């Protein structure tokens, strides 16, 4: 007889200020050792469901829940605050939201202290989890000096150090370079086989996981469960044929640009040009300097060298840093440069109409990113830099984002896009800027990168699906 570690019976949930439920009538069970993925369109309540399972909700948001949730055979309401976190660990979508300490070692030790782990066991657990997650060389690193992908690995280490029985993952591959993402999946596969860990993950890009998951629970936009079936390996998102908008006229000229912070050189002097209407993808390993380059180009980081551009807009990796108003509508209209017709078109195409009056901080991660993208497109900046715009986007969102970028490039807008999504990069890119260890390897045609195994390996990239004939190493 199998043991149900999670059991939901007719569970609904509503945030206190919302007139409608986010989740509606969910009923399912998860057995010990299962590998389950929760999928569905952006904003359907996937992350909210995870927060009900780890009991962050309803208490931490004053939410209203109905129905019954049992964890390890005990009613969820019977656990004391924080008690369940000894057995259920979570890696959140935004790793910054779960860090309290300065360095990696301090964060791991803090987690163990909260769990009242005996001091004699602390060192062993820290060493073990750093080895497990490939972070041994980052033990003394300041967390906020790490890249988004490195932070995600630290957050995973903090979750695993508690030696949980259930691991909840909220889009854990979103900020990982392709090779690191594949290695993470293979490593998690081995760990789960060894420990019998129950894995429940929220994910849009199921193709990245190959055949890892055994079961898929699908939510609809109304927060109801619309499917519960065995998981299979999904095909990557398909995009239409791209048409270049390159005009031959310069739009961005970078000469001997370098960045040094607190005596550490983050970017070595680099130079490149991007044409008007060109779509350039910036790619490379986690921590290679991609986001540093983006912040230098738009003036957030001080730098030496020169950057010539007619005007730059920036969509950061954490889009909420852009928000200045109390509604999605006001956010897109903030610059006053877009017509009502343009705003309505962006709202519809970016699927923001249902949340038009919502506060930008109250919506899902994927919706926040689309708000920030819409704001920059409404401003009509000549050069737009986007840092991981595909993160948190479902298939429809990815396809619409592709169409908007493709159309605007033909109107003369220039894009620089940091992404680890190689299918999206292959579809949209006119060129690829490869960065490694703070140095620009060069600017290449996209097709030349996919055809060069040494370039791919050096920059932790995998060719887009279809070009890669290698079989995964796990069943």
Automatic annotation (TrEMBL):
CDD domains: ABC_cobalt_CbiO_domain1. One of its GO terms (molecular function) is ATP binding. It is a peripheral membrane protein. Its main location: membrane. SMART domains: AAA (SM00382). Keywords: ATP-binding, Cell membrane, Membrane, Nucleotide-binding, Translocase, Transport. The keyword RNA-binding does not apply. The keyword Ribonucleoprotein does not apply. It is found in: Cell membrane. Residues 6-246, 252-462 form the ABC transporter domain. Belongs to the ABC transporter superfamily. This is ABC transporter ATP-binding protein. It comes from Bhargavaea changchunensis.
